[in-house]
Amino acid sequence: MSGRMIVRRLGGGVLVLWLVSLVTFLMVQLIPGDPAQVIAGENASAADVERIRERLGLDRPVIEQYLTWLFGVLRGDLGRSLFTDRPVTSTILLAAPPTLALAVAAIVVAVLVGVTAGVLAGLAQGSWLDRAISSLATLGIAMPSFWVAMLLVSVFALGLGWFPATSYAPMSRGLGTWASHLVLPAVALGLATAAELARHTRGCVADVLTRPYVRTARARGATTGWLVRRHILRNAAIPVVTVLGLQTGRLLGGTIVIEAVVGISGLGTLAVNSVLQRDYPVIQGYVLFCAAVVVLINLIVDLTYGWINPKVRTA
Amino acid sequence: MTGNSPLLSVEGLTIDLPAQPGLVQDVSFEVGRGRSLALIGESGCGKTLTSMAILRLLPPGLTIAGGRIVFDGTDLLTCSPRELRAVRGGPVGVVFQEPMSSLDPTMTVGDQIAEARLLHLGERRSVALRRAEELLDRVGIPNAAQRVRSYPHELSGGMQQRVMIAAAIACDPKLVIADEPTTALDVTIQAEILGLLRDLQRDLDLAVLLVTHDLGVVADFCDDVVVMYAGHVVERASIDELFYSPGHPYSSALLASVPQSGSPRTRLAVIPGRVPPAGRFPAGCRFQPRCVHNRPEVCGRPQPDSVLAGAHRSRCGRVASGALTVEGVPRG
Ligand SMILES: Nc1ncnc2c1ncn2[C@@H]1O[C@H](COP(=O)(O)OP(=O)(O)OP(=O)(O)O)[C@@H](O)[C@H]1O
Ligand SMILES: [Mg+2]
Fold it and tell me: pTM of the prediction?
């Protein structure tokens, strides 16, 4: 991919982030009535309301408020939590590792399971294996992740005792411990994405198999395994990577539910608590952070297009 | 190996679709070592199916229902998958009609040429790529050292077909099967590609099975001809036999429809009607509805493959019995 294209994509990402920051800023402004009163709650004293108004700068002109917020964001300063009084940025960064680990592990599960199943189904179209994978994929999409999480925990943690049942272990407690805590929630979170990927991969592989260059490779003596590794995976990858990129937002959102079920205190928990407490600075920070992650992922997806298919590089 | 047996022999090849048995029926021909054989006929006559069946590369759904295909001592219809793979891309190379879609868009042309060497000779990639560079040079691509790293879309159609040819000869094959290698290309490029194939054939002592519907190409390039019509072989002849004394009304009609190199573009005798779609083949001679010499009482019966002289064979009973003589063309 050309340098100019990367710059263009980066510019697009920055634009999206700016729009998101604008919307998150407006979140507070658009609260009907007196935002300070609403945030403080019905039973708050007048002093409390004033304190919040001052804290959020709601007493100043909107333009000034916006510029203050924007420059704060640019410096990585997202204000302070209304409840703990700690900086929002460090609150989010503290809560992020379990959530990001969970999301990344879920993506790994989804890619390993989904792509493998999809390739097998695509190679064996119409066979019992294909039908079995299609049925499982439908099931995987239909089952709510919190229910899968509960099922996995009760069978593999409480029943068989193979994995710990709850909470998150930081990597500092050892890679094994860290991973064993992640397995069940990651599977629960990644399953639906795996199913989605399996379907897309199957379709893409089936399509690639009809392409003349696959016949060419066969005419050179390629085995099926060789075909898959050298020709099919790469050619089927673009639509699959696109789907994966689209799924990352959903995975991040999905962590909220899984964290609650498995008892991980990460970003999802933070988001839920902040909403319940009407802790607007933290909510704003959470939205902005998630948007940044999604923009970053999509940038990476765009960059991989060019790596996967050289034709895109010049396009 | 087997000294004077043909390099490739196809005997009684029959290809079926479930709904249309006999899509290609009872096709027999031989390709001698270092010889070039043309497979000609109008569109839809089964040339591609026949040529793809040799390496068992038929699209799904089509099955080989009968016959024998022996390449250099290996029976390709009964051998193991491993033996079949050893033949594909090794002693037999294939060039397809559409170079653009027949090349993998995500792989450099160097890697695609090298692929057969990795598969068959177990060469390391770096070694195979050096060989790919030599091959690119051999097929007349300038700047081979840079071009090995090009992707197919960066090359013109003619260059792409040269790449396909380089890949087909990567493992020093004995036979190259080329299915209309120039049909998708500009007229000016067509001659270059055919010239290249002819040079390679001579220099590398290749046998070539050339599928084409261009009789002009046949005259320049080939030793022998197999004429197909609606899934049947109607005539097998040497080039001279075909042009001077064709043995089948269909061959004669094809010859009449070719512009003669000497004469200016006179009106061509287009064969009226069209090839019947598979499943609608008439009984007996499949060409009879379009044949000007049609005698229903004779042509409605199955036509045996008869010897006219030596290796010259025809599936027209009337020509074989001497009841009919068809016209060739003067060649100047
Ligand atoms: N995959 C397929 N499924 C069903 N029928 C097919 C398939 N491929 C080819 N046929 C039919 O088989 C017949 C012979 O096709 P084939 O491609 O061998 O013709 P051809 O002589 O190569 O023609 P052309 O000059 O157009 O390439 C045609 O009637 C075609 O419709
Ligand atoms: Mg064809």
Answer: 0.85
